[in-house]
Amino acid sequence: MLFSSITFLYYFLPIVLIVYFLTPKKGKNLLLMIASFIFYAWGEPIYLLLMLLSITVHYVCALLIERHQGKSYLSRLWLFLALAFSLALLGYFKYADFFIQNFNAVTGLSVPLLNVALPIGISFYTFQIMSYTIDVYRQQTPAQRSIIKLATYVSMFPQLIAGPIVRYVDVAAALDEREHSVAKVRSGLRRFIIGLAKKVILANSLGELCQIFLETPDQTVLFHWIYAIAFTLQIYFDFSGYSDMAIGLGRILGFEFLENFNYPFIAKSITEFWRRWHISLSSWFRDYLYIPLGGSRVGRGRLVLNILIVWLLTGFWHGAAWNFVVWGLIFAVLLIVEKLWTAQLLQKAPDWLCHIYVMLIVLLSFVVFGAPDLMVAAERIGAMFGAGGLPLADTVTYYYLRSYGLILLLAAFGSTPLIKRVVEKLQFGRGTSKMLTVAEPIANIMLLLVVTGYLLDSSFNPFLYFRF
Q: Omega into 112 within 30° of 0, i.e. cis?
């Protein structure tokens, strides 16, 4: 079930919220867990059993880790078994065919592929539940005695299938006792509708432009640049829009999820970009892999190795294909260069030059990210710089540039904090705060109606991060 679907918006969500707020406090976790199970099972009910098995294994292992906390070898054993179980499931469903394909390519054999369907959101909830068990092992949180509360944390439908990756320690208190208020509901609804609009109006429209590019036989250099910009913005508004919706829904239900995006396109270095982009994933790898490997408090050679390992796995987390691995390694190399040699140079360089550097790298990297394989990625990047004898532009390119120019401009401005700053000035301006109080709910309702119109009028409504 998609957040950006009529079924979710006008059937599932209203029913769940009405029943949730009518349910006594003691029953809210159980109700939320059941609703989340229904939400997840809507598309592929068989994989709900997989998630329930994962919850059960980590529930038991965390209790055993805590019981044997003074005996390091036993607590490590239970931690290893829990992590091995989750990584084995993730490896089987997400990476088995990738390894078989590469094994066949190297050996010349023809081992049949498993053709296993990828359970939606398995990468997200696997990382979530592993962080819980690791934190119990580190004695950063006590093991959860209630399997219902643990299952509610893992399966919570706002962030279940596309993040953000929520740490157990960040919501543990709210699982026990959380506050609900009209102010939180209003704030959550506003955040949800903004995220929904980012997804449906901007990301979907940009996705249509990208699809047109892929289906157009006559390509030009300009059209390749338009595609690179449109796809990068589509990824941003698709994923950040989903994160906004998740944060908004969480707030309505009494949870505060951490931010997942912080205007990454205003970054002045690749290091800063990754502090602003998919923050929950970056911080997960930092806390559970990079720092345990030694982080930056090691020699130069080990530092390089640590960064390469982390970003190799970051790329691989996104998908079982070589273009994702190369995408991760591109950022690894750039981060190493910035950390060891160019950090001070970037600090002294003009801001506009730093922004150009970051955006050029990001655009090219997402061409690699979105390509079906490395050969196609190389061809598209080459075409952006005139390789292949393509014309600079043609009438078809200009037609689509005029048709989607407004969406591209809106997306470009929307990816910066300019609109947010204008709204904040109006909120604190004389005579405007009261007007905004009245205008805001009207604007939200109008925006929801516009989004509904888009959904009824178009069948193009994918979520790119569902495949991860």
A: no
Q: For residue range 310-351, list pLDDT tens digits in order.
A: 999 999 999 999 999 999 999 999 999 999 888 888 888 999
Give DSSP secondary structure letters for 296-311: TSS-HHHHHHHHHHHH
Q: How many Å apart are CA 422 and CA 438, to the nearest integer?
A: 17
**DSSP letters for 219-273:** --HHHHHHHHHHHHHHHHHHHHHHHHHHHHHHHHTT--PPP----GGG-SSHHHH
> Is the confidence at residue 467, as pLDDT, over 60?
no
- Cα(2)–Cα(4) distance, rounded to whole angstroms? 5
Distance CA 334, CA 331 (A): 5
Helix residue ranges per DSSP H, 338-468? 343-348, 351-370, 374-384, 395-414, 418-427, 433-457
Q: Are 354 and 280 in contact (CB under 8 A)?
A: no
The C-alpha torsion from 128 through 129 and 131 to 132, rounded to 10°, is 120
Q: Are 460 and 199 in contact (CB under 8 A)?
A: no
Helices (H), 68-181: 72-90, 96-107, 122-137, 147-155, 168-176
pLDDT greater than 60 at residue 34: yes
Confidence of residue 15 (pLDDT cuts 50, 70, 90): very high
Q: What is the dihedral of CA 305, 307, 310, 312, to 10 degrees?
A: -80
Residue among 182, 108, 120, 195 at smallest CA distance from 157: 120
Query: Who contacts 80 (Cβ-Cβ below 8 Å, separation ≥6)?
Result: none
Closest residue by Cα to residue 212 from 227, 197, 202, 198: 227
Contacts of 274 (CB under 8 A, 6+ apart): 264, 282, 331, 335
Residue 178 tokens read as 């959380």
CA dist 465 and 463 (Å) reads 6
Distance, CA of 460 to chain centre: 20
Q: What percent of the chain has a predicted confidence (pLDDT) above 70?
A: 96
Q: Would you say 2 and 195 are in contact if contact means Cβ atoms under 8 Å apart?
A: no
Find out whether 258 and 279 touch, Cβ atoms under 8 Å.
yes
Q: What is the pLDDT of residue 152?
A: 97
pLDDT tens-digit profile of 247-260?
Answer: 999 999 999 999 99
Q: Which amino acid is at 153?
A: Y
**Which amino acid would we find at residue 394?**
D
| Cα separation, 314 vs 241, whole angstroms | 21
Number of Cβ within a 10 Å radius of residue 224:
24
Give the catalytic positions in this structure: 318
